[in-house]
Amino acid sequence: MSKCRTAIGILVGLVVLGSASAIADESFDQLVQKGMQLYQVHDNVQSVATFEEALKVAKPGSEEEFTAARNILMPLADMGDRDRLWQAKRRVALLDHQLHGTAIPDEFKADAQTAATGSKAPTPPPSVSASPAGQDEAIKLYSAGKYAPAMQKLESIKRAGNADAQTHLYLGSCCQALKKYKLALVEYDWLAKNSPLISLKRKGTDSARHLRDAMAGVCPGDCLRLSMPGWRHEQGDPPNVLRLRFPYQNGTRGYMAFSSNHLGDVVKYKNGVPEDIGKCPICGGTGHVEPLK
Ligand SMILES: [Zn+2]
């Protein structure tokens, strides 16, 4: 399944941490699903807002809170919102410590104490930035949902020949938010081809693919689709049946291979074991959604 090899795969993996059993969890699961969907179509602002909703629904100090708190990191990182990202990372670190006994990283340690004594919220360390003049301001505008003025600023940076990879990423994101999809693709493709940073190169590749999929009406969910790489014919199956392998993630060697009879279903990991959880809630199992216009 293609998503496993992308940043999105990490999100999908993390969602598994929250148990999806009781009915009471439903709205939490729906919010997390929606947050992922928004992240996949690069709507970081709405994705963050949706994960924040999920955080409100989650019981404090639960695995659910941990799941939502971790999921929010990626859209925040993409938005370049250093302050909120730092706060979010701190929340994850403290929860991880509380729930799993993981050591608190040094940068959050002092704050764990102030948090315990109820002192004021800690301030993140000062950010070191070597970005082109005006870019931080443009990113702030973008993070506030002011896409048109952000886009203007980023375009003038680009025109002046000062664009770096972040300029292209945010310009692409602004264009997408403003429904200028062809322009957004130009920026994402530039990143995919030229970014000196591997993470942004991948981001460009993924964003371009997700946007092209959305424009073609391909479901942004994780439902099994034949367009995903990795389908193969397995010995003993009828010639018209293909299978997609999902390796165990619980330390057991081996995999489960879901057949093409499961197309349109979502496979999720539960305690490291892949499981068909039924029809995709986004497309109803058709693999198609209304194309982005
Ligand atoms: Zn779907």
Write a compact overview of the structure shown.
It is built from twelve helices and four strands. With 293 residues, the chain is mostly helical. The chain starts with 6 loop residues before the first helix and ends in a 14-residue tail after the last strand.
Query: What is the helical fraction, as a range of percent?
Result: 40-55%
Question: What small molecules does the structure contain?
Answer: zinc ion
* C-alpha geometry: globular
Arrangement of strands in the largest sheet: 1-2
User: Which structural class should the secondary elements be placed in?
Assistant: mainly alpha
Spatial extent as radius of gyration: 20 Å
Order of helices and strands: HHHHHHHHHHHHEEEE
The description of the largest β-sheet is: 2 strands, antiparallel
- Discrete helix count: 12
- Overall mean pLDDT score? 83
The termini sit apart by 26 Å
Strand percentage lies at: 5-15%
The number of strands is: 4
Low-confidence stretches are 1-24, 114-118
Primary descriptors:
disordered N terminus, binds zinc ion, single chain, 52% helix, 293 residues, two-stranded antiparallel ribbon
